[in-house]
Design a protein that fits this description.
heterodimer, A: mainly alpha, two-stranded antiparallel sheet, 4 strands, globular, B: alpha/beta, Rossmann fold, 2 domains, six-stranded mixed β-sheet, four-stranded antiparallel β-sheet, 10 helices, 10 strands
């Protein structure tokens, strides 16, 4: 009853082409954003540090990969490496120019990974699908090799690791050992909201239509005057930009320092699974995917022992760990069978049903 | 919708000339020494039995193939070897034998995508979906709505095209091609698989596009009734060669055409 299309008439094309044409959707979004900010003051530091910050970081990386794989239909296995480029670029920039605010460098570091991403996107004109995935695999291994073998990238640090020097915003530490989870969460949240908003603008406009056109029917797109190479490279660049920023956030606002192996092939797969399960070609799906793959295991780790406790059964930690894997794995398969188009499609169907509830159609 | 203005060419001038074009794939000759022309604002039909090289001909015209011999002249300029998108930007649009729509997009977005080459607002404004980007979006939306009205597909404006019946998909595809405001519109079997009513609708749209906006149309079609009624001139291909060219009446009476379609008694 609360969620109805009826009575909301659009009188201008601007209103009709709004990203959230329904008033209820806009209210819901506002509540979610306010709630996310409120969480910074309500949640404890475990929730912020171990759940929310990584969730947002992975969501951002998943949005990046979704732009490439979901919207443009180009499969990539180089996500981890592109995240790494962002992280290393950010490290170099913020240590070379400590006077400039680190937020600026986080946003700038994405451009480095965008450039590298576009470079490795060049083969996409000729090859598609699995073959392109293999080509991006080359990026993954080559860049990871660079992270290990070029000590200049870590300022000749003997440990070979990235560390997070103290950096402040308005005098409050946001990076470094003194930064509280609360401030870091607020910074990550704001960056993710801004970049999600921009991604949503892009995919709903001319550029997004060109990306989807290339994905759905590349021949027809080209015969309509859409330049395939430029469009695909733009997708690679934008996608890598998001991954790069996510990588910088991951190292400096979540881990507080990292080694090269954070950006290995597993990370690429991890993000790819989030995108597939969340929903290819959906921004909200990126958040769902990150939640299912990252938050669900944590929740299970807490819920499962609590479930057994009332019965006086104490379960060993390793059993819980195994159960966790089994349940998450089974759920992934379940969701993929129920809805191969991902959680985002389930969400969409749910909203459609709610619009006409209590009637079936 | 306004007619594409081209001060250089008046109605009846040669818009596109095909001169002695041959196209071969290895040992297979798809086209052999074909010559014909398409004049401004006419409806030109290309017919022939299956495998005659009609679609290959269209593919040459819109730059998808490059003829192995001969040349194609568009608006008085010989066409170099080019990528198809260059031909599209030069004013040639087409629809496909098997519908090639962007299945996950709505009707509206499909036709809007057809406007891509007409949209120029820069990347910066696209990021914010404000200012020039939004102004442009609305401007082109208005144009697209005119096409939607013209093709009578208002009710499916927001439906993903993958869910539409075949006849409507064909119509949306025509809309997408019209969105490019082409000078030359290539239609590859626009009526294939349609029932009588749908064919009548489609014929009406083709005639209206041609008459109201002066768009030159080249169409491939197997329904002889449609071809004879719609087209101003017909070119007939068989086994990659041109066997007849002229008005529908002349072509219909041509013995070689009758032989090609009905076979020859041995």
């Amino acid at each position: 009853m609360l969620y109805r299309e009826a009575g909301q008439f659009k009188t201008t094309y601007v209103a009709d082409s709004a990203i959230f044409p329904l008033r209820e959707d806009r209210i819901g979004l506002a509540i979610i954003i306010l709630g996310a900010y409120a969480l910074a003051f309500l949640g404890n530091s475990f929730l912020l540090q171990a759940v929310m910050i990584p969730f947002l970081v992975f969501s951002l990386a998943a949005i990046g990969l979704n732009i490439l794989t979901g919207y443009t239909g180009l499969l990539s296995l180089g996500t981890g490496a592109f995240m790494g480029v962002g992280a290393y670029a950010c490290y170099k920039l913020m240590t070379a120019f400590p006077g400039v605010n680190v937020i600026v460098w986080i946003f700038v570091s994405g451009f480095f990974s965008a450039a590298i991403g576009a470079l490795f996107g060049l083969p996409s004109l000729r090859i598609k699908g699995f073959y392109l995935a293999v080509a991006t695999l080359a990026a993954q291994f080559f860049l990871q090799w660079c992270f290990i073998r070029i000590p200049w990238l870590v300022n000749y640090n003997v440990s070979g690791a990235l560390d997070a020097p103290l950096r402040t915003l308005f005098g409050i530490p946001i990076i470094g050992p003194n930064a509280t989870p609360q401030t870091r969460y607020l910074v990550v949240l704001t960056i993710v909201i801004v970049l999600t908003w921009i991604a949503s603008n892009l995919v709903h406009g001319r550029i997004g239509r060109m990306w989807i056109a290339i994905r759905d029917m590349d021949l027809a797109a080209e015969l309509m005057g859409i330049r395939p190479l430029q469009t695909k490279l733009l997708a690679f660049a934008v996608s890598s930009y998001y991954c790069g920023v996510a990588g910088a956030l991951l190292v400096f606002l979540w881990y507080g320092g990292a080694e090269y192996d954070v950006f290995n092939i597993n990370q690429s797969f991890f993000i790819l699974f989030m995108v597939i399960i969340g929903g290819l070609g959906s921004l909200i799906g990126s958040f769902f995917g990150a939640a299912l793959i990252f938050i669900l295991p944590i929740v299970l780790g807490i819920v499962l022992p609590a479930m057994f406790e009332p019965f006086g059964i104490s379960v060993a930690a390793d059993v819980i760990e195994h159960l966790r894997f089994m349940i998450v794995g089974a759920l992934i398969i379940f969701f993929l069978i129920v809805e191969p188009h991902g959680l985002a499609r389930l969400w969409q169907i749910g909203k459609q049903k709610l619009l006409v509830w209590p009637f079936p159609y | 919708m306004r007619a594409p203005d081209n001060p250089l060419l008046a109605k009846g001038d040669v818009l596109l000339a095909v001169d002695n074009v041959s196209l071969g794939f290895g040992g297979v000759k798809a086209l052999t020494d074909v010559s014909f022309d398409i004049r401004k604002s006419e409806i030109r039909a290309i017919i022939g039995p299956n495998g005659a090289g009609k679609t290959s001909m269209l593919n040459c015209i819109n730059g998808f193939y490059y003829p192995t011999e001969g040349r194609i002249t568009f608006k008085g300029v010989k066409r170099p070897k080019m990528r198809p998108y260059v031909a599209a930007r030069g004013g040639i649009a087409r629809t496909f034998q098997n519908v090639a729509l962007f299945k996950s997009m709505s009707t509206l977005d499909n036709i809007m995508a057809g406007r891509s080459i007409k949209m120029h607002s820069n990347f910066f404004w696209q990021l914010f979906r404000h200012g020039p980007a939004m102004k442009e979006e609305v401007e082109h939306r208005r144009f697209v709505e005119e096409i939607i009205d013209f093709l009578e597909i208002q009710h499916i404006r927001k439906t993903p095209v993958g869910r539409l019946p075949y006849g409507l998909q064909k119509r949306v595809e025509l809309g997408r091609a019209l969105a490019m405001e082409p000078e030359l519109l290539l239609l590859d079997e626009p009526m294939a698989g349609m029932n009588l009513e749908e064919k009548e609708d489609m014929s009406r749209f083709i005639l209206e596009v041609n008459q109201q906006y002066g768009t030159t149309i080249a169409l491939i079609e197997h329904d002889m009734g449609v071809v004879m009624d719609l087209s101003d001139r017909v070119v007939v291909l068989e086994y990659g060669r041109k066997i007849a060219d002229g008005t529908p009446a002349a072509v219909k009476g041509d013995q070689r055409v009758i032989d090609a379609y009905l076979g020859v008694a041995h």
